[in-house]
Amino acid sequence: MRPLSFAALASAAALLAVAGIANAAGRAAAAVPSQSDVLRLSSAHPIPTEVAGQPGPIRIDGCFSDARGTDGLTLVHHALRVTNTGDRGITAVRVRFTFYDAFGDVNAYRTNVAQAKLDPSQTVDRVNLAELSDSGPPARITCSVDAVRFADGTIVRTEPGGAPRRPL
Fold this sequence. Notes:
five-stranded mixed beta sheet; about 45% strand; 1 helix; alpha+beta; Immunoglobulin-like; globular; four-stranded antiparallel beta sheet; disordered N terminus; 9 strands
């Protein structure tokens, strides 16, 4: 390709990109949501949720999940109660959620981090986590501890089977 042809093509592409950005910006500025453009979710539907076995410095005492949906998306909400069973303070817990379909097969894995300060032997209620599912509400969920960050910055992760790995 000749240098002049390349320069002409590059200039044309740049002009088209600028025109597209300006056009998109104009559309975005004109699109102001009205009162009728509110996202309406269905009422909450409980999802059977169980806690997987979990050795280590933290224990999930309870995990309760529900789902609300709209337009092919599902908002899955989890409320957890966790206890620090170790002897060091904890500043964050990453929880792993396994979503199962109606046939009992794994549909998806999700992890979510709770920035929760837990002193040794302390229990915290109402740790709330949520995520979107684009495949409808799961038939059942299993939750487990995926990783823990201690107050001193040390991180301990668990293996897929639940056994703790060496600290990082």
